[in-house]
Write a structure and sequence with these properties.
Elements: H1 43-49, E1 54-60, E2 63-70, E3 77-81, E4 103-107, H2 129-142, E5 153-157, H3 159-171, E6 177-181, H4 211-216, H5 229-237, E7 240-244, E8 250-254, H6 269-274, E9 279-285, H7 293-302, E10 309-312, H8 319-322, H9 324-340
Parallel strand pairs: 3-4, 3-5, 5-6, 6-9, 9-10
Antiparallel strand pairs: 1-2, 2-4, 7-8
Helix pairs in contact: 2-3
Length: about 350
Amino acid sequence: MSDTPIAPPVAGISYEAGKPLFDLQANQGQLAALAGSPPPGPRWFTDAIAKTPEERFVVVKDARIHYLRWGDATKPGVLLVHGNAAHACWWSFIAPFLTGDYHVAAMDLSGMGDSDWRASDGDQPAYTMALFADEMLAVMKDAGMFAAAKPPVIVAHSFGGFVAMKAAADYGDRLTGIVIIDSPVNPPLRGESVRRSADHKPRPHNVYPSLAAALARFRLMPPQICENLFLLDWVARRSLKEVATANGDVGFTWKFDPAIWRHFSIGDTALLLKETRCRVAVFRGAHSVLMPPRVGDYIFDLLDRAAPVVEIPEAQHHIMLDQPLALVAALRALLADWEHSVATRRMAPFAGP
């Protein structure tokens, strides 16, 4: 989500260690033309972001994990989780629409957003799928979501969706379900076999002399045009932090840890999905390059054709930026259905720790 577009290895998509998953053809993003000025947004957006969340931290294995919280803590919980190199504020304009019926939190996974970076220990990965899943559980516990009358739901985008699958496989008995948003669990023949990211040599982020210069370099991964510039600007500004430059001036750089994917393994995502032990729903963008219809069909089969795979019209991969209100409507309808319906999919048995 920046000019450092190293993507995590995803099974079934070609990946060469240390190289971007997608080639970027331009050095400037859509926000360059605005020269640092925020574009105006519609009333629904300004009303949503005006509902300021409570900001909290919880410590997980020596790292402070940052999250935002909206709504009544006695209501059923919904945890919102971002994608690769993103942050909790990708959900700031979605969460308020869910608080009528739910207690909502949005978190920063470690190494991203305002959560701490983790130190590497030699050849051992600093970040793992199990650790990210534990962070999800810790946030839900700290927010009081396990004390509600019904177990919480995790709603997670892109890479966060894979972590939600891991949480549902390990802790599914503590969840109502997970909603996976455009997280491609790919058929075996789609693309080339994937390499581990063990040889990925992280490069330090660039430091930009001004906020406008940094915003100009913000681009989405995979590359796409976003028609809602007010949303693109919102998430871009919150992807940056102030730092001191070499000459002592104030500069701007990206918040996420460029070393996240060193020695990282995402594992077998198809197996992970089949091992989930709670309800599962899948949303895909109608024009997503990562989740074309055949990938949705494959996921539907993996879930025994007994879990919904919902297409969001006119959306690409970044559904909350492309079609935010359609996403809200789809989430409201799904969560309302889960309040009274019974799951028909057979859950994976618990294998124990």
